[in-house]
Amino acid sequence: MSVDVQERRRFTAALLGEDAAPPPSGPAPQVVRGVAVHITAHMLTVATLDGEERFLFERTTSFWRGRDVGPEDVRVGDDVLVRCGGTGRWVVDRLWAQLGRVTGTIVSADEDAVVVDPGHGRPRAVAVIPYRSSGRMAVRHPVLEPGYLFDAVGVRERGTVHTTVPVTTQPPRPAARMPRRPPARRVPSAQSGIVTWYDPAFGRAAHTDPRAHACGAAYPALDPGSDCGPACDRSEPCLPLPLLSLGATVAVRNDDTGVSGVYPVLNCASAAARFCDRCREASGDASGRLAELTLPAFTALGGRPEVGCFAATMEAG
Length: 317
Description:
The mean pLDDT is 88. The radius of gyration is 19 Å and the shape is globular. The protein contains 3 helices and 17 strands. The strands form 3 sheets. Strands 12-16-13-15-14-17 form a 6-stranded mixed β-barrel. It has 317 residues and is mainly β. A hairpin with a 3-residue loop joins strand 3 and strand 4. Among the domains are: 100-174, CATH 2.40.50.140; 190-316, Barwin-like endoglucanases (Beta Barrel), CATH 2.40.40. Residues 165-189 are annotated as: Disordered.
């Protein structure tokens, strides 16, 4: 969390009380991100912000690198995200390598690649659709043309994301032609919907960049008069969300696992406001995106990054 965000939380708590700005959850000790420096069939060594750490594999440990793989498919130099099992920190339950995600509005398309605008404040991203996953992608994202929404998870390779899993079903019309949503008459204190994830470090230098380890949220309804900024491109969210500022906190509960946390708002999630989708593997029928958690926070609440979302209940401070 930046100093500015910390100061904002203290100011809000002093002005409105601690209930308006509860202290955020710290990093989960069971979730570790870094760069793989050594790997065998039974052990992994990861370079992290705190130095090298070693982890053990069991027969039940699962691995993902664009698809379910074995430890032999994880490479030295990979950006790895580790979630340990139980209350310990040394035995790996699940490992993800080279995770990448592209979410936003298609700007251009050329054969097997699309350029996507993820909203102001984030650089444009390139999603490559390999032939082996093109059938699955075409079912969920049939129109790869400018103006249509795109959201998929895959493997980062040389500055692009080779997508393998479509997170959502693409709406049937361009984002600019989506029906206007009526203004909300009432904003509930607790809201049900879905939560997704994003990587504030964009897959870069996971062992040296503090952004790769941040526990926070990007929010789709930032105050347009201040925190959204002059280049604000957010639209009316699918859900009746309250306006928040950077530094505000949101309490998020994963409705599938029951695990919850409190996270500061670190960034804008303007693209999330354009999606009114459901999480295909979540229980219940909640729809609409409440927030995007950073990758470590999403994983700490029991989320599966390759699925891309979970059903959640969120309460804004």
